Amino acid sequence: MNGNRLPWSGAVKRWWMSLAVTLVMGCAGQPTLTTTPPPIPEPMREFRAVWVATVDNIDWPSEPGVPTAQQKSEALAILDKAVEIGLNAIILQVRPHCDALYASQWEPWSSYLTGVQGQAPDPYYDPLSFWVAEAHLRGLELHAWFNPFRADHPANPSKLATTAIARRSPELAVTLGTKGYRWLDPSLQEVHDHSLRVILDVVERYDVDGIHLDDYFYPYPAYNDHADFPDQMSWARYLDGGGQLSRADWRRHHVDRFVERLYRGAKKTKASVKVGISPFGIWRPGVPQHTDAGFDQHEMIYADARRWLHEGWVDYYAPQLYWPISQIPQSFPVLLSWWTRQNPHGRHLWPGLYTGRVRPGGWSVGEVVNQVMVARGLLPKNPGHIHFSARALDGQRTGAHDDSLTTALATGPYSAPALIPPTDWLDAEPPPAPEISLSLRGEAALVSWRRSGGERPFLYVVYAQRQHRGWEHHILPAARTGFRLPLLPEGAEDEQDGRLLQVAVSTVDRLGNMSSPQPRGIQ
What we know:
Blueprint: H1 10-25, E1 44-45, E2 47-52, H2 68-85, E3 89-95, H3 111-114, H4 127-137, E4 141-146, E5 150-152, H5 165-168, E6 173-176, E7 181-184, H6 189-205, E8 210-213, H7 232-240, H8 247-269, E9 274-277, H9 297-300, H10 305-311, E10 316-317, H11 332-340, E11 348-349, E12 352-353, H12 365-378, E13 384-388, H13 395-398, H14 404-411, E14 418-419, E15 435-441, E16 444-450, E17 459-466, E18 470-477, E19 482-486, E20 500-508, E21 520-521
Parallel strand pairs: 1-14, 2-3, 2-13, 3-4, 4-8, 8-9, 9-10, 10-11, 12-13
Antiparallel strand pairs: 5-7, 6-7, 15-16, 16-19, 17-18, 17-20, 20-21
Helix pairs in contact: 2-4, 6-8, 11-12, 12-14
C-alpha cells in the first residue's frame, strides 16, 4: 500500500456523502436542487449521396470535348446543387471502361473528357483532383467509382488508344456480340492484377474518401446478344489443370477473389478509405419469398452479392433497389428488410434509389421521399441512401422543368443537416475538441475555433441553443474556422423568441467520429 494515500473505508465514504448533503441543504435547512443539464443533442446521422456517371456523358461532362472551363463549371454546379439539397457525399465515376478521368500511368485519358481516348484536357487539369478539392471545400465526401472489367463501350466516341489494355494486351480482353462492348476476362490473374493496380493507385495518390464498384462484373447477357461469355480458352486451361468447379462456380470464384483482394488491398494501402459496392438489388429470384426479379445475378453475371456482405469485404453496401414501394414482386421495403438480415458484420447498408424515374409519366416525387423515410425506419442506427443519378436532381435535364423533387427533399427529409454515420470498425477514436473563442459583435455572436492537435479535421459542427427553439446544427468544412450566429433569428416575434443562449463546436474526423461539444454561454 502507498503510505501517502489513505484507504477509503465505508465509514469515510458515508461521512463525505453526509457532508455533501449538508452543504447542499444550505443555511435555512431547505434543499437546493442540483440538476445536470441535459446533454447537447448530436446532429442527425445519414449518408446522403448521389452517383455522378461519366460513361456516355450521362451526368458529367455534358458532352465529350467541352472546354476545360466548362467542365469545371458543370462540376461546380453539381457540387453546389448537392450542398443546396442537403447531400453529404458524391460518388464520381472515374473509370468507365479501362480509361481514366484523372492522370494515370496505367490507363489512357477518358474520351468522355476530350472526345479522344488518350488525349489530356487542354488547358490541362486533373479532374479527379479538382473534384476532390472542391467537394472537400463544401464539406462533401468524394468516392471514386470504378468499373473493374469493362474495356470498351458502344457509347465511346473514340477508338481505343494504343495504351488501352485491350489493345496493349489483346489476349486479356474479349469482344461481345454485335453491340460494341469489349470486356476483360475476369478469370485471368493478369486482369485482376491490372484492375487492382489501377484502383489502389487512386487510393494511394488521391485524397478520396471511398472507392466504389457497381454491378458490372461479368457483363449482362444483353451486352453479348444473350450468348455465353466467350472465355473458352481460359476455361479449357482450367479443366486441363485438373479444375473441379462447374463453369458458373468457377466464374463466381474469380469475382469473389477480386472483391476480397480489393478490400484487403485498400485497407493495406490506406485504411481510412471506405470500400463500397452497389450490386443488383435482388440476390436470387424468390429470395426473399415471393420476390421475382426476372434476372438472376448469381447465374447471369456470376455475382454472389450476399457473400461479399457476409464476409465483411465492404465498408458499405448499396444494393440497387430500383423498384417502388408498392411493386409486389420487387417491393423496396421488402428487399431492404431482407438485406438488413444478411449483414453479420454490421456494415453500412445504404440502398441505391432510382431517383431518375421521377419524371412525367414516371414516378412521383413522393415515391423517392417515401423511400428515404422507409430506409430510415429500417436502418434506424446508421441510415443512408444513394440517388441515381446527378441528372435526376436537375429538373431541366430530366424533363420535369421544375425543382419539385429537390425542393421536396430539401424541405422534407433533408431539412436538417446530417453527418455521415461513423465507420467505427475502421476507427472509433474521437478527435480532440477544438479550442473555441466567442465574441459579440452588434446583434451577432462570432464563434471561432482552431485545431488543438491530433488528426486533421474533416468537418466542424457548430451548435446553437435558442430560447424556446432548442438546439440547431451547422455542419461546416474543415477549411472554416469561424461562424456568425445572429442573436435573434430572422422572423423572431420578440426578444425572447429564438434568442441565442449557448454555442458549442465539435470536430469531426474522416470516419465520422466526433469530439464532445463544450458549450459557451452568451453573456
